[in-house]
Design brief:
Rossmann fold; cytoplasm; UspA; 288 residues; 12 strands; alpha/beta; 10-stranded mixed β-sheet; two-stranded antiparallel sheet; elongated; Universal stress protein family
Length: 288
């Protein structure tokens, strides 16, 4: 993986552009910046040539805006490849492009979803094979920690391998940025059973922590991290991730996502998506 794909936003100060260029320098990676432009030109009373001219003007203006962003971030003469694509739906192009040799797709986060509409962010989380770094508008603060989240409950080999990938990636970012790393494992206590007084939440969590200790020890050994870097907390998974990230003042949360699709994903979502609704920090998601 030798490149970063930065999706330039429409805003004048694009968080993804500045964060991506910062990471590219630290990781010694090439950068490709892609921007999109689109307008419905069918209602214009112009012939084909006139419509083509308008389209080209819009593409040229979008390119000029992106180059201006890059010049402010990286200086004139940065040599970054810029692609401007004419498309209303941008996620298919990004997903197809990211199937190549890309270390990550970097995009400013935009939260917008309803039962009949799925945002670009959600499409990327569910379908993009490359890691997806969704950037908040908050600047990274020196010394802020990085937090990884793993699922110790799963016995599926793919998810266990994903746990290792998540920690490995989080450790790489932590070492690169010279900040502390914390790994969070959440014990999800079944709320319905607690509400029906069928289990005691504290006793259940204590027993699960004991049962999961061998898996935790094995994961620490595989990743080379000391057990002191791992935290086991009980609570609703997404809300616990968000509260622990806030407690740590984490600048980046790294997690795995299974990327459900269809109606089930629209209604239920998954842990990464639920957490993303609430997180105020950058989020790096990886798939199995």
């Amino acid at each position: 993986m030798s490149k970063l794909l930065i999706v330039a936003g429409l805003e004048d100060q694009c968080a993804a552009t500045s964060r991506g260029m910062q990471l590219a320098e630290l990781m010694d990676l090439q950068v490709e910046v892609v921007a999109f432009a689109y307008a419905n030109l069918k209602r214009l009373k112009l012939d084909r040539k006139g419509i083509a001219d308008v389209k080209q003007r819009l593409l040229d203006q979008r390119r000029a805006d992106v180059v201006s962003q890059l010049n402010r971030v990286a200086g004139v003469g940065h040599g970054v490849k810029v692609s401007v694509i004419w498309s209303e739906d941008i996620h298919p192009w990004i997903i197809k492009r990211a199937a190549g040799d890309y270390a990550a797709v970097i995009k400013t986060r935009h939260r917008s979803e309803s039962l009949g509409y799925t945002s670009t962010d959600w499409h990327l989380l569910r379908e993009c094979v490359a890691p997806v770094l969704l950037v908040s508008r908050q600047k990274w603060k020196k010394g802020s920690a990085i937090m990884a989240t793993v699922d110790l409950e799963s016995t599926a080999r793919a998810k266990q391998a994903l746990n290792v990938d998540v920690i490995t990636s989080a450790r790489h970012y932590a070492e690169m940025l010279q900040v502390d790393l914390s790994v969070l494992c959440v014990i999800d206590v079944p709320t319905l059973l607690v509400d029906l007084d069928l289990i005691d939440a504290k006793a259940y969590a204590k027993e699960r922590i004991k049962e999961l200790q061998p898996a935790l020890t094995a994961l620490a050994k595989k990743t080379g991290l000391p057990l002191s870097k791992f935290q086991l907390k009980r609570g609703p998974v997404a809300k616990t991730i968000v509260s622990e990230a806030a407690e740590l003042k984490a600048q980046l949360v790294v997690m795995g996502t299974v990327g459900r699709r269809g109606v089930r994903a629209q209604v239920l979502g998954n842990t990464a998506e639920e957490a993303l609704q609430l997180l105020k920090t950058d989020t790096l998601t990886l798939k199995p």
